[in-house]
Amino acid sequence: MEYVDPIRDIENINAIKDILRTQSQRDLLLFVFGINTGIRISDLLSLKIADVWEEGKGKEFLCLKDSKSEEEGAFYLNGKIQEELQAYLGPLDFSPEDFLFKSKKHAQAITRQQAYRIINKAAKEVGIQGKIGTHTLRKTFGYHAYRKGIAISILMKTFHHHSSSETLRYIGIHQDELRLVKVDVNL
Q1: Active-site residue flag, 106
Q2: 179 an active-site residue?
Q3: Model pLDDT, residue 175
């Protein structure tokens, strides 16, 4: 597996969202879901509609067993995810057992390769120079969560890492960024 970078610049994230919004609501949801939860791409692609949607609205939490570690986790589906779920699923006629990221060609989920093409193409259109792939979504989540003050111990648990240095390296935090974390309580 090749090393990929997080998307550090919020303007680039918003530009990718704009591109994906004009391309496909499904693709936009994939991107927004990934950068707001840090869920592995294999786990994202295996999601069924019933996992995230009930009674005409998005669930507050997604309970999921990690495909690699087999550990159970609960992931908060924040307002950004809820907006995109509503925009994607609201007008659709679907079965709860349909894949959330269903292929346009058949009843299966899109492949990892297709998810890679979607994310990589949009990132290149925005002009991002770094290495971008499906793992970029997970790393972007970790990078921005840390920068907004989420404890490294929580991120270690999310990523199933054994040390804070492993997690910091994984999410692309460099030594000079360690002291620039925003803890914005904003009561």
Answers
A1: no
A2: no
A3: 73
Residue 170 annotated as catalytic: yes
Catalytic residue among 88, 116, 143, 170: 170
68 is catalytic: yes
Mean pLDDT rounded to a whole number for the chain: 92
Q: Is 160 noted as a catalytic residue in this protein?
A: no
Catalytic residue from among 102, 135, 139, 144: 135
Question: pLDDT value at position 76?
Answer: 96
SS3 annotation, 55-85: CCEECCEEEEECCCCCCEEEEECCHHHHHHH
Tokens of 168: 């910091």
Catalytic residue from among 102, 138, 139, 144: 138
Point out the catalytic residue in the list 26, 40, 102, 144.
Answer: 40
DSSP code for 172: T
Residue 181 one-letter amino acid: V
Cα 161 from Cα 155, distance rounded (Å): 8
- Catalytic, 138? Answer yes
Q: What local confidence, expressed as pLDDT, does residue 2 receive?
A: 62
Return d(Cα 51, Cα 21) in angstroms, integer. 23
pLDDT band, very low/low/confident/very high, at 67 (cuts 50, 70, 90):
confident
CA atoms within 13 A on the CB side of 61: 6
User: What DSSP line would sit under 94-140, residue for residue?
Assistant: --TTSBTTB-SSSSSBPPHHHHHHHHHHHHHHHT--S---THHHHHH
